[in-house]
């Protein structure tokens, strides 16, 4: 990326980066990577909603907190928590904001509770909106800054049994694409990072019904069978093709360091053929057919096992 490797930068010249969702996964790894930078080019504000989970980040950094790191409490669903975090940064320049906090929700639409859907949108969409709102005015007045948002391949194309999650990430895409247009004259670059499956706590944390559980009982047998097949695919994709967190970090580092980052950066080409098919057929029918046939084998739900 063309940055000097040595000597260490004086504190005032460091690039300041605030990241949400640093208790695990991508946020934790990115915060650790930037805070441990050999030339100390960054000052990292690693935020998390539950500070009791901060130990994992410190462990990653060898047990002590370097002067390149500050851990702050920030729950993106809580305006008071956001205001307090913004207050702690007041008077300091924020160069890069990484909206990374996110949660998942999987399963037949009929099983998604009102509460689960509201929580999902509150974190994935409104959480990103609130976080950007908290830090944008200062970036605008400086006419400089970068905003990086953890979106998903599920923000670009519909995935079976991920309807509400994809809806939240499609919304994030619309939010950011619209905002990027207005931010151009302010010299603020906005980048959406499109990850595919990554080995993090995401899968363990996501809400999903057990295919044999009580939430599925009222559901028709055909949908239950389709869901069972999807889970089978999902498991094998996570086993065989999911990326390690370290593999997706270069995409974030590029978005932080590049003089002119694009609106979208993908960490994986896993779904690229289906994505191209979706773009080449704007009415969407070819995509729906191809995804259906790929996942469910083109036959009836009660047909052969995958
Ligand atoms: N892993 C994957 O396969 C993919 C993930 N993504 C996206 O990447 C991002 C990071 O996820 P990933 O690292 O994989 O998953 P993790 O579950 O490991 O990390 C999610 C982070 O978000 C935090 N979080 C959840 N709710 C809130 C909240 N209300 N306020 C602040 N933080 C919150 C979690 O904190 P806590 O520990 O307190 O719950 C955690 O730190 C998400 O936006 C996700 O949608 C995109 C594509 C694929
Ligand atoms: C690759 C692939 C599949 C699996 C995709 C998965 C498992 C995506 C997970 C995405 C996540 C976790 C996004 C988080 O934001 C399908 C649909 C089975 C069939 C088509 C090819």
From TrEMBL:
Statement: the UniProt record of this protein carries the keyword Plastid: no
Example of a GO MF term: estradiol 17-beta-dehydrogenase [NAD(P)+] activity
Residues annotated as the enzyme's active site: 165 (proton acceptor)
Keyword line: Lipid metabolism, Oxidoreductase
Binding sites annotated in the UniProt record for substrate: 152
Pfam families with a match to the protein in the record: adh_short
Biological process according to GO: estrogen biosynthetic process
Keyword Lipid metabolism among UniProt keywords: yes
Record-level GO cellular component terms: cytosol
Binding site for NADP(+): 21-49, 75, 169
Signal peptide (UniProt feature, chain positions): none
Top-level lineage group: Eukaryota
InterPro entries in alphabetical order: 17beta_DH (IPR011348), NAD(P)-bd_dom_sf (IPR036291), Sc_DH/Rdtase_CS (IPR020904), SDR_fam (IPR002347)
Similarity comment text for this entry: Belongs to the short-chain dehydrogenases/reductases (SDR) family.
Protein name, per record: Hydroxysteroid 17-beta dehydrogenase 1
Species name: Malurus cyaneus samueli
């Amino acid at each position: 990326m063309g940055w000097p490797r040595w000597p260490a930068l004086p504190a005032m010249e460091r690039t300041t980066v605030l990241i949400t969702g640093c208790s695990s996964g991508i946020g934790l790894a990115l915060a650790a990577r930037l805070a441990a930078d050999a030339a100390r080019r960054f000052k990292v504000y690693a935020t998390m909603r539950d500070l009791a989970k901060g130990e994992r980040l410190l462990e990653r950094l060898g047990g002590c907190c370097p002067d390149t790191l500050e851990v702050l409490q920030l729950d993106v669903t809580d305006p008071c928590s956001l205001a307090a975090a913004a207050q702690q940064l007041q008077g300091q320049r924020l160069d890069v904001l990484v909206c990374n906090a996110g949660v998942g929700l999987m399963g037949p639409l009929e099983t998604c509770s009102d509460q689960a859907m509201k929580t999902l949108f509150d974190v994935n969409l409104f959480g990103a909106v609130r976080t950007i709102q908290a830090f944008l005015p200062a970036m605008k007045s400086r006419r400089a800054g970068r905003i990086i948002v953890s979106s998903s391949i599920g923000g670009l194309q519909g995935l079976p049994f991920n309807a509400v999650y994809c809806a939240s990430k499609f919304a994030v895409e619309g939010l950011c694409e619209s905002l990027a247009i207005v931010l151009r004259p302010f010299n603020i670059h906005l980048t959406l990072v499109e990850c595919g499956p990554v080995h993090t706590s995401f899968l363990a944390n996501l809400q999903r019904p057990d295919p044999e559980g009580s939430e599925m009982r009222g559901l028709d047998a055909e949908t239950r069978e389709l869901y069972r097949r999807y889970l089978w695919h999902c498991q094998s994709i996570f086993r065989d093709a999911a990326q390690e967190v370290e593999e997706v970090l270069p995409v974030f580092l590029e978005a932080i360091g590049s003089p002119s980052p694009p609106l979208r950066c993908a960490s994986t080409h896993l779904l690229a053929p289906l994505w191209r098919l979706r773009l080449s057929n704007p009415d969407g029918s070819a995509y729906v057919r191809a995804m259906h046939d790929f996942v469910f084998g083109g036959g009836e739900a009660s047909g052969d096992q995958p």
